[in-house]
C-alpha cells in the first residue's frame, strides 16, 4: 500500500449520494478524504417528488458537498477508471488511494449544478401547475409518490398512471399495493396496468398505450428507475467484481470481492435486500468502522459484519399519509404518514450530515 500524505491514509469515495456522502463525512477527521461526484451537490432523493410540486422544499434537500465536508476534498467530475492505486476522473484528475469506496448507486442525468437542479424543479412545478391532465409513466415508488403529491396538492387535476407491471409498487407485496390502488382511485387517479406508453408517438396531447388505449394529457413525467451507476467500472480492474446485473459483489465486511482495500456500499452492491437509502446509510456506517480498523492495521477477523436487512418499506402518499409494509403486514393512512410524510426525513438526513435541520 502506498504511503499516505502526512500521517493520514487517503480515502477516496466515488459517488456523493446517500451512502457516499455519509461515509465521506464520517471519515473526514481521521483520513485524508476525497469525494468524487459527477454533480456538485447532494440531494436527498426521497424529497425530489415534493420538490417538483413545491420547489421551495428543495432548498433544504439540495446542498453542496462542501457544506457537509468542510475538511475533505471534493472533485466534481464523473469517475472514469479505477486502478489498483488510483481513481481517474473524466476531466483527468488522478487521485491515489489507500482505501477506495465505490458508492455510485445511480447516475444523475441533466442537472450537475445546484442552480440547474433548482431550475429543473421550477420547470416541473410550472408544468404541473399549468396542466389540467397529467400522465405518469411508471408505477414504482417514484411514480406513485409523484401521483400522490399531485393528487393531494391539486385535487382537480386528472392524473393517470400507466405501469408495465401487473401491480403498482411490485416490491411491497399485493396487500399493500392494493391499498395504494384504492387510495389513489379514491382521489380520482386513473391506473392502467400491464401496458406501456411510447411518448415519442404522442400527438396533440393524445398518448397511445401498448394495448391501444388513448389517454389525453397536457404533460407527462417518466418515472422509471435510474440505471445502476456501475457502467464506468466495466473496463476497469473491478470488471470481474460485477455480477450479471451490473451490481458490485461485496463480502460480509462490504469489501469488494477479491479486494483488500476497496469497499462497495449502497444501491450498487449485490447485497440481497431492498435497495433503500436507510440501508445505504447502514452500509456507510459499517464500511467506515472497517476502514477505521484497517487504518489501525486490524486483522480481517476483527472487521464488522453487515447482515442484510429485513424487508421494511414506507411510501409517502402526500404530506400526511403513507403506506408501510413489514413482511406480510401492511398499513396505510395517517399513522405511517406520521413517521415519514410531513418532513420526508429531510431534517433527520441533514442532521446525519452535520447540518442544521432548518435553514438559518
Ligand atoms: C422517489 C424515491 C423515493 C425514495 N424513498 C426512500 C425512502 O423513503 N427511504 C429510503 O430509505 N430510501 C428511499 N429511496 C431509495 C434511496 O434513494 C436509494 O436507496 C439511495 O439513494 C441509494 O443511495 P446510494 O448512495 O447507493 O446511491 P445514490 O443516492 O443514487 O448516489 C449515487 C451518487 O453517485 C454519483 N455517481 C454516479 N456515477 C458516478 C460516476 N461515474 N462518477 C462520480 N459520481 C457518480 C451520483 O451523482 C450520485 O451522487 C427512494 C428513492 C426514490 C427514487
UniProtKB/TrEMBL annotation:
Gene Ontology CC terms, in alphabetical order: cytoplasm
One Gene Ontology molecular-function label: electron-transferring-flavoprotein dehydrogenase activity
Family matches, as InterPro entries: FAD/NAD-bd_sf, FAD/NAD-binding_dom
Domain FAD/NAD(P)-binding stretches: 10-274
Function: Putative FAD-dependent oxidoreductase.
PANTHER family per the UniProt record, alphabetical: APOPTOSIS-INDUCING FACTOR 1, APOPTOSIS-INDUCING FACTOR HOMOLOG B-LIKE
Name of the protein described by the UniProt record: FAD/NAD(P)-binding domain-containing protein
Species in which this protein is naturally found: Solanum lycopersicum (Tomato)
